[in-house]
Amino acid sequence: MSVFWQCVLAIFAAVGFYTLLHIIYERLVGRVLRMHGTAELTLYGDGADAASEQLIRVALRMRRQYLPGMTITFVEIGNGKEPNVARHLSARQDIMYLE
């Protein structure tokens, strides 16, 4: 086998080995961060709006699937006089609600 083909095979082997190590590293670090990491998410919205309810539900799903230690804060920017779905969801789902 010529020197050229040996170099090509060595490059492919190096790239494959690097890719394998990178995948293993990403899996391990992702798992450690998920289990022991913390994060904070702040949502701003009108609590009477249906989009705010949707935001809260998506944030809860992300907390359940990816970051169990994440704290969620909902900041009310509406008037708060109408039936407020965000306030009720916050009380039931361990979300900090700020007016």
Q: Could you describe the 3D structure shown?
A:
With 99 residues, the protein is of the alpha/beta class. Helix content is 59%, strand content 15%. The protein contains three helices and three strands; from the N terminus they run αβαβαβ. It has a three-stranded parallel beta sheet, with helices on one face. Helix 3 links the parallel strand 2 (71-76) and strand 3. Helix 2 (50-65) packs parallel to helix 3 (85-92). It is rod-shaped. The chain starts with a helix and ends with a strand. The relative contact order is 0.15.
Topology:
Layout lengths: L2 H34 L3 E6 L4 H16 L5 E6 L8 H8 L3 E3 L1
Parallel strand pairs: 1-2, 2-3
How large is the share of residues in beta strands?
Answer: 15-25%
Please give the largest β-sheet.
Answer: 3 strands, parallel
Count of helical regions:
3
Distance between the termini: 74 Å
Helix content: 55-70%
List its traits.
99 residues; three-stranded parallel beta sheet
Summarize the structure.
The protein has helices at residues 3-36, 50-65, 85-92; strands spanning 40-45, 71-76, 96-98.
